[in-house]
Amino acid sequence: MKTQSTVTVGNEYKARRSRVNRAVHSLIAKFVIMVLVFFAVPALLYQEFRQADLDRQNIVLTAVREQGRLMAESLRPTLERADPSSLLELPEEIERIATKGNGIKVLFRPVGEEGVQGVFFVASEPRLSPDELRKERQALVEQGVFDNLTASCLIERPMAIRHLRPSGVEELLTSMTAIQTDAGCWAVIATQSAQVFLGSSIGQPYWKTLEVQIASAIYLGMAFILAILVFTVWRDLSRFRDLARGIREGRIGKSSFMVGNKVPELEPVAYEFDRMTHTLRESSDSIRRAAEDNAHAFKTPLAIIRQALEPLNKTVEPENKRAQRALQVVEEALDRLENLVSTARHLEHTSAELLDPPRENIGLSALLLRMLEAYNVSFSEQGVILQSSIDHEISVLAGEDMLETILENIIDNALEVSPRGTTVTVELINGKKTAELAVRDRGPGVPESELERIFERYVSYRPRKSNQDLDETASSNNHMGIGLWIVRRNVEAIGGYVRAENRQDGGLSIIVSLPQNTD
């Protein structure tokens, strides 16, 4: 019987792959957003603070350089004197002009001298010994301070160079002012104690400043704490998920979320889950009871009707064709009603098992071997060859009735569509964590576009048999298009999945994967 399904769910195998893909894509998207936020926000803030720091630097350096220019102008009269004896007063004059925290370095390039070697270090405040002067000169050469002085004397160069004195004290070179005289070119370099600019970015990259380093340490610390919190939440949710899966699959002794939960924040959720589980179990019991009550209520009047037909069959004359046909129609209707009652009862039991599936350690290998042995007669009568390959010691957590229903429907389908002389292969493979069951036939197969739909309710692609060919003892489920639908529901109820594949050389394969009981 074929009907158009309102919703196409797809088999569990592809559904799981789809869920995994969605989860991976969601995690990647969230990770990309987190990375963008993690790097973009600090970058934007860094640029803003750096610009503010540059503006602050310009204001401070402008004032410091103006002070350096004034000190150079104070030395100009002394440096412009033609009397060489005035140079003896230069150290005292520099000491008088220099203020606390400020320093002065005086360089001289005589007329006719060129290159770095023609520049002499004349005086300094704080004062330096001759050996320290040589080291200081070499350091200034390496920093390129002499470069402009060797090319021209017409310079007034602002600077922001951090310089280490021979004594190990750091200072900042803030400006260099050139003074041209008849004897040559003088250069007055103003310095400032680095203690004044301690923690600032003057003379160094902004990221090296103390405030940026502290802010970076705080930000990284917060990011680390956030990562720990995210990991903790993920771990707790994973544990709760494992608890839910264990309760659903019956792998753990605890049947309560409140008992098994170890995360205080999830206690309200665990409480609601326990209430939901209790409701589902009560619903399952109610459905089972209703199925039995309904079946009994229908079968009693049907049995009475069938008993009442027996004397009628005896009293109606064989020549009365019309009466004989009426009795036959009534009996056929009774057969259909009994099949419908049986099917409805079976479906309701299946629905109840989905809500609260039984969880027992069932030896799947032994169960399958017993069932195949019982099927030998059916296969022989229909001229179909049964081949099997069964791995031993495979167990699953399920109900024996559920497993029997799964196996019966799949094997019955394969037997019914197989032409005489063909082979049906049944394989059970130990997949370590899963048990892989495959039933392969040589029937007509199913169109590729319909492989998912065969697991939907009331969908069947097998040719219909006439009433004369229909054995009353055959399972009516298969002929109503609900056999594979029940298979999928039962398989999913115990944590497995089922799919169908067309064989390349003709026929169909039904493949079931069930989680093994490894305890």
From TrEMBL:
What is this enzyme's catalytic activity, as reactions?
ATP + protein L-histidine = ADP + protein N-phospho-L-histidine
**Domain of life of the organism in this record?**
Bacteria
Which UniProt keywords are given for this protein, alphabetically ordered? ATP-binding, Cell membrane, Coiled coil, Kinase, Membrane, Nucleotide-binding, Phosphoprotein, Transferase, Transmembrane, Transmembrane helix
Q: Which GO terms describe its molecular function?
A: kinase activity
Stretches that traverse the bilayer = 27-46, 214-234
Cellular location of this protein?
Cell membrane
Report the residue ranges that make up the Histidine kinase domain in this protein: 293-518
What PROSITE patterns does the record point to? HIS_KIN
Name of the top EC class for this enzyme? transferase
Can you say what this protein is called?
Answer: histidine kinase
Q: Which organism is it from?
A: Kiloniella antarctica
